[in-house]
Amino acid sequence: MTTQVMTVRGPVAASELGVTLPHEHVLCDLWKVTRDPNHFMTDVALAVEEVGRFKAAGGGAIVECTSRNFGRDPRGIEEVSRATGVHIVMGCGWYREPFYDRALYEQSVGRIAADIEREIVEGVDGSGIRPGIIGEVGTDLHYISPAEERVFRAAARVQRRTGLSITTHTARCPVGLDQLDLLEEEGVDPRRVIVGHCDTYPDPEFHAAIAQRGAYVQFDNVRRGAEWDTQNRIRWIQHLKALGYLHRVLLSQDVYMKPLLAAYGGGGYGYLLSDFVPRLLEAGFSREEVDVLLVENPRAALTGKPA
After folding, report:
1. Which of 78-82, 178-182, 224-228 has the lowest mean pLDDT?
2. Which residues, including other chains, have CB under 8 Å from residue 98's CB and lie 6 or more apart?
């Protein structure tokens, strides 16, 4: 049987995904925490235009990592998917502590897990639209808080029951290794874990340690910006390739606010294909290796089945 991935329009064969961005936000709302109007990204018509640019550049699928209480809009992203033809995989679970509802602090690991699993099985908020990945679940600072630990343990237990992969949020620190410790303690195979935002912590040894554990090293801040940052990301990918870990690398852009959209002068969802891929080719990566990074690795990360 063909391995399938759950998208907002239903299950599709993994072979149909094509070029996949494994960590993006199509519709989200950080404003309620940050109070930055640029973080209020909820315009469906604009999202259709922006995702359409990715489609025109050769894109096939997006993993929408907006989880609960972060502005997730199942019906909105379904509309974007139908309008553009891009497959969109929706996330579930809780984001990180500043975004938690008060009620979460009164729930056990089992209760949190049951709520996440219910969404995966039945769909979100009566929409019938089902997640295809757990996350992004994250840590706000350089450690896992007690509440975040409960969320991670819940995510782990749901992963083992449903088989969906987990995608995490880290930022500017090596807490991704602690996340892996906790998930493995709960019995999760690290090959089903994507450690996010690894490029915000510029330590090649940290990147290698994640890959050595079997998890995915996700460089998902690949955006238009400083040339130094672009060169660093290329060097980090080259380093992992030299170690034999190219198959553990994922690339994305983590578009989560208006200035990152093409309509506002940013690179949008198409930057990776239009600008960064040519830089990889110039740096000596083959077309086949680029396909590993953009097609084969995301497919394997979602399904747990390597190419």
Report:
1. 224-228
2. 33, 140
Asked whether 60 and 100 are in contact (CB, 8 A), the reply is no
- DSSP 8-state class, residue 201: S
Contact status, residue 306 vs residue 300, Cβ threshold 8 Å: yes
- Please give the share of the chain, as a percent, with pLDDT higher than 90: 97
Give SS3 for 5. strand
pTM above 0.85, yes or no: yes
Q: What is the CATH number of the domain that holds 22?
A: 3.20.20.140
The domain tally of the chain equals 1
| Cα 140 from Cα 95, distance rounded (Å) | 9
Pull the structure tokens for residue 67: 């989880």
Give the integer Cα–Cα distance in Å for 243 and 65: 29
Query: For residue 213, what are its two tokens?
Result: 């554990």
Q: Is the pLDDT of residue 2 over 90?
A: no
Give the structural domain span for 31. Answer: 4-303
Taking the C-alpha atoms of residue 192 and residue 307, their distance in angstroms, rounded to an integer, is 15
